[in-house]
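Cross-check.
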Amino acid sequence: YNIVPGLLGVILQLTMVMMTSMALTRETERGTMENLLAMPATPMEIMLGKILPYLVIGGVQVFVVLAASKLVFSVPFVGSMVLLIGCILLFVLSLVLLGYTISTFSRNQMQAMQLTFFFFLPSLLLSGFMFPFRGMPEWAQYLGEIFPLTHFLRIIRAIMLKGAGYQSVSGEVGALVIFTVVFALAALMRFRRTLD
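Predicted model, tokenized:
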């Protein structure tokens, strides 16, 4: 019951960040990004055009994992589906924006993959997915708070398994909003620099 909801966050993090960063880096490598930049579109419009398809892919993954958790593993679902979907959408958006940011730092797909794993592995170890979060040393808990996965795991376990409402998870949702805004600003600023 504890692993399967957390697995949704881990799968989304791995696929969303890696697919976004590698796809955008590949466009830069092949020169198709130059064609996009020649069009009368703002950096924000180009960014939206690049991240929206990955939000759809994330939605398909969410559907598959939630269906498997109910039908295959019989994980109980006692919370609000609307609240859960809203939180998942926010989490996926922050991950896609992180992948976009990574792509602005990468010169080729290999670098994008390495940077993705550089983010993914500490996030996996310090988020509370593999080890109990409160059982880790205090310094590891402080480090774990800087990863979106940590907050998402608390949200999905609270909603799915405990039936928590928005008030109970509002702090974690606020953290995801901050991550999303920071990653969006970083992506836009780096993209403008790349344009120059």
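Helices lie at 3-30, 32-38, 43-71, 81-105, 109-126, 138-144, 148-162, 166-195. The chain is about 80% helix and 0% strand. Passed to J.P. for a second look.
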